[in-house]
Amino acid sequence: MKITKAVVTAAGKGQRNLPLQTLIDKDGEQKSVLSIILDEVVSAGVKDICIIIHPDDEIAFRSVAGEHSNHLTFVSQAEPKGYGHAIWRAKDFVKSESFLHLIGDHLYVSRTNKRCAQRVVEVAEAESCSVSAVQATREGLLPNYGAISGKRVHGRDDLYSVEKVIEKPTPTEAEQRLIVPGLRAGFYLCFFGIHVLTPAVMDILDYELNKKDGKNISQITLSTALQELSRKEKYLSIEMNDYRYNVGVKYGLLNAQLALALSGMDRDKVISMLMETLLLREQRSEGRND
Amino acid sequence: MSKLIDLILSENPDIRNQSLDVFCKSASIKELLNECDKLEEFRKASDNLYEQVRALFFLYDIHRFHLPLKDGFPSGGLIPFDGYEDLLQRRFEEAIQKYLTIQKTSGACDGISSALAAAYRNLGFQTLANQVRASVRSVRGNQWMFRAGHPSDHPLRIVPELIKKENNLFPILHEQTPVRMDLSHSGWSDIFFLGMDFPEGARVLNISIDLSVREQNSQQSPRPPVEVFFRVINKPVIRLVSADLCAVTEITTFRQVFDYAADYLGLLKAAIIASGIVPPSMEGANQPISDLLTELVGPNLGIEIVSQVNEIPKGSRLAVSTTLLASIIAVCMRATGQTASLTGALTEIERRTVAARAILGEWLGGSGGGWQDSGGVWPGIKLIQGEKSKDGDIEFGISRGCLLPQHTILNQNEVTENTRRQLQDSLVLVHGGMAQDVGPILEMVTERYLLRSEIEWKGRLKAMSLFDQIVEQLKQGDISQIGKLTNANFFGPIQTIIPWATNLYTESIINRVEKEFGKDFWGFWMLGGMSGGGMGFMFHPSRKEKAQTRLQEIMREQKKRYEGGIPFAMEPVVYDFKINEKGTWAEIMTGENTIMSKHYYSLVIPSIIRQDPRAITQEQRIELEHFTAISKTHPAFDGMFQQILDRILPEGEKHTSQQQNLEELLVKYGFDRIQHEQIKTDLRSGRIGLSQNRLPVSTAIEDVKIDELYDIKDREHSKFASIGSDAIASGTVAVLTLAAGAGSRWTKGAGTVKALNPFCRIKGAHRTFIETHLAKSRKTNKKFGIKIPHIISTSYLTHEAIKNYLQSENNYGYEGEVMLSTGSIVGLRLVPTVRDLRFAWQEMPQQILDEQAQKVLDSLHSALMDWAQKSGEASDYTDNLPMQCLNPIGHWYEIPNLFRNGILLQLINSNPKLRYLLVHNIDTMGANIEPVILGRHIESKAAMTAEVITRRLDDRGGGLANIDGKIRLIEGLALPREEFEFVLSYYNSATYWIDIDQLLSVFGLHRKDLSDQTRVTEAVRSIALRMPTYITLKNVKKRWGKGQEDIYPTLQYEKLWGDMTILPELKCSYIVVPRMRGQQLKEPAQMDGWLRDGSADYVEKLCEWEK
Prior knowledge:
heterodimer; A: alpha/beta; two-stranded antiparallel sheet; 10 helices; globular; B: alpha+beta; 31 strands; 42% helix; 16% strand
């Protein structure tokens, strides 16, 4: 299995402007959030990228995509019909191939030399199956993520065979159904925002979205499809110890910027700036002007 | 190897289920003590719950029921005060070690064994309770609630459907839950520990039902008795409303959530905690609750939870409070996305989570229930069975069974529609009106189960076999057979296991129903912990309607007959019911259909209207407009405006008439207003009070040595026996039974007449206290061929009831004179001062309760201190039924009253030889005219002989002491320090032998003066002035609503007869009598021990019952 395509979702409510924001990347260069995400995708060896956007956003997105703009395919999602529907919109783009999927409002900082997406893709290619990146997350954050349970793959510390996927579980449900041996109490494996998915996911989404069983389409999430996927075929998850930053939350962009800066070439400079700011603030509060 | 450890460890059921009694009866003292040592070592070394607990109960049983009954086992023995303090503080292990050390150094004795028994028993129950709690906390789905500490960590969110307004109104989520009924009566096998230890035997047939109270002209059809409404509100508070208890609170801090007893909303608070809305781990968080609500609902939003129990009285034995907890938990779980579906039924795993959390809620609220009590959450008829723990279960390796049982819903093929209908057509469900504390019964069941006492164990096996037959008959569809079986269960195993499950009231109803309906009455069916409250009667369907009408009448009549002596919380009711096939069920109401219950509006709307119109918030305005609209269009809201108006207008008249009634009673019963006002002033100024009851600390208090007393068991009796017998035979003795008091501890302040309480079944019939005392006098009469006069002293509280009852019972056929000596003085209770409450609850050593129950008690105490302050400290207590506001002012007056009311004169006139009076309390069951004691009294030439007994741990409240060189009786209230009581070997049994002439002379009177009222009154007053007056705290019940009861502490003042021993001119002697003669029955919880330790047999032998 070779991964050559990627799908990035960026049409969500309140999500549309986030990829357009500008940050200084680890290399000291000014880039848009979108561009940094695309760097992540490209680092995994994927060149053919589809971005799911609101129909009005193509020009803006293309303008901030930098060097990647030529590799992009834009697919629009006119109405906010949910996460599952957004991915399903890329069905014609992925055709019958497996694809890398990232969400458009998260940035990743790896603790190793390998970037996060690259690791996920490598595992997927090696195991020839869908792979979701997950991270042990404390239960207070469960309202924000999809979560899985699974058994550790024999001989691997970081790989799990996925058994159950639940979107934003309550802690009650998580405790009853998502306990993973070896994790600290109150921690669950939540999605990290990077997946490699086989085309079967598109078929499941297709089926779910057309089922019309009275369910609101927006309630069909990627987790709905992944739960089904875990029943149908081999589906693994890889536990990541790296950092993810949601730029969509309060101070999310600032936090992401600090993280990038502190792990990049301008680290010392940023630390000095921070120290200076803190010091000045401290002096002012003590009433000194010298 | 110890034989008893063998019983615990054996895998062979024949050995394992052997009774402890069999071994202990034949074992010597030495053997028993040896076994105790081994059991003590064993229980400390074992880490298996079952082994520990069974060993603890074995130890308890040996020390309580076996060692003390062995010939040659030393009586008496002082209990160390620090060990007692450990016991109060629940440091049971430390207490046991201290008692064992004393036992080792000073030898085993009755006193230390009583202390050891109490410590082992408490530790046993504590171990069990801890295990249930640990299991509840460890149930998956509950664990997270004990971790989240900061509001920002709150992992729950209200589901979006409830936050979306329609017509400016937030939607309402409405949960309706049926209650459960136990068709089999499980033989109490649903007690958690039994289920966890003996899952095979823990089985019940549990039915979810809808109910309505059957009333004339009422068309109300049965509906789920418990309803809960949940909605989001535009205010960052948690608003809790109990529509049926008329209580509303708005919670703004975490502290308020965990303050369970501050109002009537403790159960709702426990439910929001157990549902995870405010996780238990957030207790102590100091952020405002709005921080949590911001995470949970959103900024500036809050939630409102309204609970309503539809007309079902407390004590219904239908697990209403657990159902309410479960219903609130269910609605909260739905609202926070913890269930798959917002509406409709719950899934099995969700129902189990609700049940586990209801147990958690009960623990938080300091109450308890069985594991079948959340049965209403499940639909229809189901079998609930204990489940063996297996690898992977949290209970595995700790207990044999799991905490939560398995529920198997019986479908229509197993129990047909026809059978279900027949069951509904033949069963009459009632509430008899009695509301009792079943806690002691559940403890007794656990105790007996663990001890495998032979008869009770056979009873349990029989109950299990009846259960199988009931299930079989239900499947066969033979309802009349079910009636027979439930009846056989009640009269067979249930009463074998716990004799106290029945009572005179219940049996009298069954008898009458049997007589009236003959073969058409199929059988009685006991619901829940004990009878008298919720009960079932099964009839041929053609007679059901008649039976409903007649049962209502019969219950009313029987209640009227017995209410003098049996506490009733309410008028009896008959229910209509139907099986609920849905279980707990929720609906969502949106827009103009968002309607709360009528009770809610009648509670909330008046408080909005009363406000300044400018202060009405937008939300309240919308609520008013919405209410106006629905009350015009909704048929169920007819007459609502009138109800609202009634609530707004003041209701003054009722209060005034109650007040008037009280004033009349005070005048009628001889109330001394001047003395009362003086006491109030003294109380307020702090001159008198609980702490001032005590003697100065400089008082020298010493124990009385045995050679200063006469111990009846050590002496040669023949001389005294013949003197006494001669005195009896010559008609010199009469008996005075003191029955003027309220017996507060017997009914927890219910204000019934203890003397008339049918306290025990003896020789095949329920006997009242009075009947038993008369039966003892009858036996003496028969033996000596005389007719001893028997006087019963009464008061405003007891006189009419005793008079009427004795008349209706024809004095129980007593052949001699039965005279009532009426009291002529009464006190008015007072609201306590906060100072006195603090002294009683904070400075005096108190029994600390289990952790959570103690929190609830502390919270209650603080609410009651607040009540005292607001009601006015040391003001008259008038906010209750007039009779509950009065108090008899101690038993001192009951004897001089004989002089004042002419009874003694009358007695002397009709029995000129009369010289001696045996005076005893109504609850001293073993006191009788014993020739040896009388002979000794006559020989001692004392004016009064007081009977004392050696002390056990429970004998609290003073005793016999050498005080500043004089031997006298001292009340516990008067001891300068609590620990002094623990150096006193002898306890006052409150039985006195009085030489009438000598006593009169102490009062400065002679027989001839008794006709001179002025002189007598003067004489009594002059001695009364020399008697100390004690300020005491007494609990008084106030009843309201549907069987609700509140208990208030009130202050009263008393003079006590034992203090006569301080008078130097009254020559007193003291005699040590056997415990069985001298012990008093103060609380129903003592009854089981009284029956088992041979005391009941002892008393029975003294009696000759009416033929």
